[in-house]
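User: Last request for today: this protein with histidyl-adenosine monophosphate, please.
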Amino acid sequence: MGKLQSIKGMNDILPSETQAWQKLEKALREVFYAYAYQEIRLPLLEKTSLFARSIGEDTDVVGKEMYTFEDRNGESVTLRPEGTASCMRAGIQHGLFHNQKQRLWYMGPMFRHERPQRGRYRQFHQAGAEAVGWEGPDVDAELIALGTRLWSALAIPEPELQLNSLGDPESRKRYRTKLVDYLNRYQKELDEDSQRRLLSNPLRILDSKNETTQNILQQAPLLSDYLDIDSKRHLDSVCGLLTDMGIKYVMKPHLVRGLDYYTRTVFEWVSVEAGTQATICAGGRYDGLIDLLGGKPTPGIGFAMGLERLIEISNSPGLTFGPKVYIAVTNTAGQGFAMALAEELRNYAIDVELHCGAGKLKNQLSKADKSGAELAVIIGENEISENTVTVKHLRSNQLQQVWARDQAVPNIKQLLMGSD
Ligand code: HAM
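Assistant: Here's the final one, the structure of the complex with histidyl-adenosine monophosphate:
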């Protein structure tokens, strides 16, 4: 049998990385709450039909990327490739959208069978926000302000906000016909994927990275010329509100999204720092989705960001978790003494790493230094016989001190007070 390894594209997050993740998650939570978004937690596994119906049968996500299998009852189930569909399913199921509006957020792993590369994984993590029940442009602009605040909270070099409107389903249908008419003239020159999409999902051709296709698209009709008047007004208002808040954006008439449920406002934040997988956060309105899933017609808008991509480009210094105090114990006779002291310090919310297994003091002090602790408390033979502790200052030149055991906790508390 070969070596057991994790599945390709599904990564372990190692102890050296988890602090950055925790810091990111904390910052996300704080910003979500600053805008009155409430957390919802959703299952990782859903019925396949939920995603097929909401994301769309002709999308790459549903057509090629889902982890779908039959469970033991023979029912087709799928590991969630995104959170919006589950969130709407849950809202409908529990009556959350009945005569009430909701601002919701979620965070967790998603699964897509894509070709793994930097920034693109098969198990990846998203944090998403969904505002359900508001149809006006104010909530669109507010959601974008939330995203913008996140980038500054995470010290992420300002990504570019790209904006477009997909209009209502009618205007999109009109545009689709015009686009197909135009592209049919160049059918043979289009790349293979785009030729296929010409039949299944022609708007996605606008997203093609192929150079020849891009050249052909330069003269293609623009969706913005076919927008219905309400969608046009909606877009203008969103732009006006963003300008009022000093948020910069770039109009991208070719911005379409890879999921079928969008209407009107769509947007993406693109970061040059993130390499080829440059979109760190993306979303838009989905005014028809709840209706499509069997709920009462209710408007909604949301976005989701890829946490792996944010971690890669985040500039914020890592949080220094880790112990404040390292207790070095040179022989087994001192273990009870040391453990009692450690427990007492933890009663005051002081994080302690206790050296287990005794051993040479020199080695223990080098571990204390690496742990990031402020203080090393040494418990050796002398300390036990004299009922004292020796304290070494690891981050300053202050001289080593010896205290009576009953003074140890109050003195350590006082020393650490100023160090946060
Ligand atoms: P999405 O564009 O499919 O939208 O994904 C959103 C973000 O998730 C992407 O911009 C990217 O940062 C990250 N992402 C997607 N796939 C991967 C992957 N394979 N590896 C790493 N990161 C990835 C949605 O999922 C929608 N549910 C967003 C939304 C919420 N729209 C309305 N509400």
